[in-house]
């Protein structure tokens, strides 16, 4: 008689665990280590892209004639919209405006070197505006102006191995000088 009781208890415990699992909210990071196969859906990663671009937010560009969006490498800017209310945020609007201003000064002509795909199948790229010999790195500009901070700087770009250090130094200087959005991010008025 004890064996059927133990089996019944184990079945009830398993059913309770299954119900608890169904009630839990989905883990946003589950599967984050396994990015989608963007190459299969979007094609091969291009070696470079040049064209007219516009700011979608403070870290994302849309390119004229380019299907995927471009996410600027090495930075994170304030979210354009609050996730709870869907209202635009002041830091997000300021970051987008700063990016749009620099694009406008360069007549929206951008050159990008894609590094990889991100989890949303956007091209993660280092992009510049302006003519050689002194083009302006958009990511470095956004960080130096205090409109973004360094993000995933452990990644090494093959064509500029010291980009991460350059971005980290620009962030430290912007934070120290309290440029751009740093007073807000540091909790000051």
Question: Keyphrases for this structure?
Answer:
189 residues, alpha+beta, 5-stranded mixed barrel, two-stranded antiparallel sheet, 6 helices, globular
Q: Cα distance, first to last residue?
A: 71 Å
Report the C-alpha radius of gyration, rounded: 22 Å
Q: Strand percentage, roughly?
A: 15-25%
The description of the largest β-sheet is: 5 strands, mixed, barrel
Based on CA inertia axes, which overall geometry fits?
A: globular
Task: Describe, in plain words, how this protein is organized in 3D.
The chain has 189 residues and is α+β, with helices and mostly antiparallel strands. The protein has 6 helices and 8 strands, in the order H-H-E-E-E-E-H-E-E-E-H-E-H-H. The protein has helices at residues 2-23, 38-42, 90-105, 138-144, 163-177, 182-185; strands at 49-55, 60-63, 70-72, 75-77, 109-117, 123-129, 136-137, 148-150. The strands form 2 sheets. A 5-stranded mixed β-barrel has the order 1-2-3-6-5. It has a two-stranded antiparallel ribbon with strand order 4-8. Helix 4 (138-144) packs parallel to helix 5 (163-177). The longest helix has 22 residues, at 2-23. It is globular.
């Amino acid at each position: 008689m004890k064996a059927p009781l133990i089996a019944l208890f184990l079945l009830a415990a398993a059913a309770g665990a299954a119900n608890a699992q169904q009630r839990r909210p989905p883990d946003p990071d589950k599967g984050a280590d396994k990015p989608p196969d963007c190459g299969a859906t979007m094609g091969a990663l291009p070696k470079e892209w040049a064209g007219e671009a516009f700011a979608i937010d403070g870290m994302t560009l849309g390119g004229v004639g380019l299907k995927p969006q471009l996410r600027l490498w090495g930075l994170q800017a304030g979210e354009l919209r609050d996730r709870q209310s869907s209202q635009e945020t002041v830091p997000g609007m300021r970051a987008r405006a700063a990016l749009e201003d620099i694009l406008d000064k360069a007549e929206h002509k951008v050159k990008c070197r894609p590094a990889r795909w991100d989890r949303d199948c956007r091209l993660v790229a280092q992009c510049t505006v302006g003519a050689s010999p002194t083009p302006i790195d958009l990511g470095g500009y956004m960080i130096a102006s205090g409109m973004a901070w360094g993000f995933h700087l452990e990644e090494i770009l093959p064509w500029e191995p010291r980009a991460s250090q350059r971005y980290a130094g620009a962030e430290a200087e912007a934070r120290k000088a309290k440029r751009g959005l740093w007073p807000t991010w540091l909790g000051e008025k």
